[in-house]
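Quick question, first post here. What does this chain look like in 3D?
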Amino acid sequence: MPPARRIHVSGVVQGVGFRPFIYGLAQRHALCGWVRNSSAGVDIEVEGLPAALDAFLAAITAEAPPLSRIESVTVQDIPGNGFTRFEIRHSQAVEGAYQPISPDVATCPECLAEVRDSSDRRYRYPFTNCTNCGPRFTIIQDIPYDRPATTMAPFAMCPDCQREYDDPLNRRFHAQPNACPVCGPRLELLPSPALGAPPQWDTLPADPLDAARALLQAGYIVAIKGLGGFHLACDATDPAAVRTLRARKGRAAKPFAVMMPDLDTVRQVCAVSEAAARALEGSERPIVLLPLLPGGPIAPQVAPGLRELGVMLPYTPLHHLLLQQTPGFPPALVMTSGNFSEEPIATDNGDALARLGPLADAFLLHDRAIHIRCDDSVVRATEGGVLPLRRSRGYAPYPVPLPFESPPLLATGAELKNTFCLARDTHAFISQHIGDLANYDALRSYEHSIAHMERLFRITPEIIAHDAHPDYLATRYALRRPEPRVAVQHHHAHLASCLAEHKVPPGEPAIGVIFDGTGLGPDGAIWGGEVLIGGYDGFRRFAHLCYVPLPGGDAATLRPYRTALAHLWSAGLPWDDDLLPVMAAPPQEQTIIRQQLEKRLNAPLTSSMGRLFDAAAALCGVLQEVTYEAQAAIWLEAGADPDEAGAYPFAIKRGEAGAYLFDPAPLLRALLRDRREGAPVPRLSARFHNGVADLVCNICLLAREETGIATVALSGGVFQNATLLRAAGERLRRAGLTVLTHQLVPPNDGGLALGQAAIAATTVRHT
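> Answer (accepted):
Ran it through. Tokens below.
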């Protein structure tokens, strides 16, 4: 008998063409045996000449399919079985085993060529896919990843598709969503049940896709069913259409994302770096934030007050067909989540017609079910890769590798921008973006997603980690479960999430600069401008922004002028009549605010850096009231002069509790002086940002001097601010410090669950 080997490959190796790849390798090297999927990965038995076996083994990792991600290859020498051919065997379920699942993948060039080829049987077919592209996570109901365990199960393949599916050398071999116009999902266009059919409905083309394009070109709003939910689409160059969408959706100023047909079109509208181009054209196809060029065709109502635009390229054949450039068709479509504010994105046809009826003039539907909702991802492109702002479609649920072994656990995440995390062994499976847990529908979606991923990855949690805030819905969910629980302080979780994604081992502390809007501190105050020293197993508060009363509590987040008045009061600066925040507050409200501050009535203490950004925006005259989270800070950053080198100072002093305090009073005085001398907003904004960056560097140098620690982790929602992140990082690196920033999970609360999981796993190991 010839020598033989048993091989097990783990990682993302299902739904990515791995078995036909192995089949082809075996044929090339004249080897016999078999390959099959299992719940734990891919199993192979192969026999033949020793040199051929060695070459086969080396090629598994060297030539693996582009969408696969191999985590490990284990090899065992076994006796030969006398196989006479190589075959692909049926999948096998392994009790308790699990494996990573591929995210949804953008249309590959080969499939797109078929869709555009008038002689191909899939010409203009909007559901064309193969093993290199198409839906994965959103259609999978269970593993092993086979068609009966997906939402494609109701579609029986025609003979042509079945032949492709059965041919190991075809790129559609066991492509579970494989379909064509004869046997696959179909489009349907329906008028809004709430608004009625548009006047020209009876004159529209018979083809649903062409009819939808005609409506979009005419200025109507169309709800489009995609991979993970519905989009609301309209002409992004038509101010009236965008205004109508804003009015119907109740979204006064929050920017919309747009989709453009190709990179050349994007370059006519936005500045596109090499890093941004890589992010735009990658298989994940996220929304990428790009600087707007002056004089472009995009309606200003798409991103009011901003110099950036969120842009994505088509990632399904349907998108490519919708965006096909013909005379008169817009070069960009608004593509925003199909929901009302605070609601989860719609996924079901009936639910979409009922909920989105008042929003859209027509609905472009299809009959392939979406098993799990999944919003678009949002990133900033950096030279080192991407800074995730929302990690969802294209990235989830691929795991973040942990630098330690974890017991089976669930981390429930935060209240806003929620994601949850399931961990097991060295894998942290972070969910798609769930969003704000603001209502029952969002909570129900959250609970459904947890149950689905627990089943998918065969994880029965032995411990639950949750935020220390008792009123978060994610915390209440954790408290309803029977498993033992670990409460994790909000900012400690931010620090741990940054350390975990950089594989910092347990026991290695770092300086954590954690700047965000809100998080409950152990002292009962609202933290948010924190410098922590610690790791997974604990932390101490080294420094923080001076406490300021927040008049009205959460209500002040919608009225930055209130936060500005509070900071002026705390700094001992008068509320002079020439100050814009004073002008924004009527005299009666000023009296109430002053009483709240002096008597601490509904004015909780906060050290939030996010609220200081709000105050600065109000004092600079950027915004006095906002309609969405962090709007004031975003607009303040948008106005910063990149060439301004000046900086406003903080005072750093030792507090009574032992931690250092950074006091913004000198910064506020300098800002008001410049404002009164007529300095423009770009200068004021830049000097404020530079002052915060100087503070980060100065306080970290102080921490290094006292502790000897030279690694700094930057986390929290404020570090979504590219201007601050770049300026602080440059200063820290010049000072000889190692800087860790987020690259796999968001710095905002969307990355919090990873930190909760890391802390809980460490806690369990130490008990």
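The first helix runs from residue 18 to 28.
The domain at 102-184 is CATH 3.90.870.30 (DHBP synthase).
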